[in-house]
Design a protein that fits this description.
The protein has 153 residues and is mainly α. It has helices at 14-25, 43-65, 77-100, 109-118, 140-147; strands at 120-126, 129-136.
Length: 153
């Protein structure tokens, strides 16, 4: 097993530091994360890639637990791709809302989704002729989203 030490050791020699690691910190339950790339990355590039991994994992966590992309019961690759694309579009939509509306920047996906799901449109019609649309169930979040002046270019 190889260990790497990335700090300056003033009080310990390299061998003493490795011995300290083995005695104090290695308890047999350590895991590891392997970052594999087809590119020859520098240490800095590898570290940046590793740090980006966390944000990617958070997006997948949100897709599974907040957007609710559940285990896909499909049998073709295209169906899987389609479900994932819809999930990513939903996640992108929520991210865009947070970016565009500063008051919602720290609002969870769960609350944004709930606010949008509560919106209701009742169609009052008679003999298949539409008379009017009645919008209801507004709250602070969905009102901000609906009345925001979206920049369209």
């Amino acid at each position: 097993m190889d260990y790497s030490i990335q700090t300056k050791l003033v009080e310990l020699s390299e061998n003493d530091a490795i011995k300290l690691l083995e005695e104090k910190f290695i308890i047999g339950r350590e895991g590891f994360f392997c970052l594999k790339s087809s590119k020859n990355l520098t240490l800095t590039e590898a570290l940046l890639t590793y740090r980006k991994k966390d944000s990617i994992e958070k997006i997948f966590n949100s897709l599974k637990n907040e957007i609710e992309i559940k285990p896909l019961r499909v049998w073709t690759d295209n169906s899987i791709y389609g479900a994932l694309i819809i999930g990513f579009i939903a996640q992108l939509f929520v991210s865009m809302i947070r970016f565009e509306i500063p008051e919602l920047k720290h609002t969870s996906t769960k609350f944004i989704k709930k606010a949008l799901l509560n919106l209701t449109v009742t169609i009052d019609s008679w003999k298949r002729k539409t008379k009017r649309f009645i919008h209801s169930n507004f709250d602070a979040i969905n009102t901000m989203i609906l009345y925001h002046k979206w920049a369209i270019s």
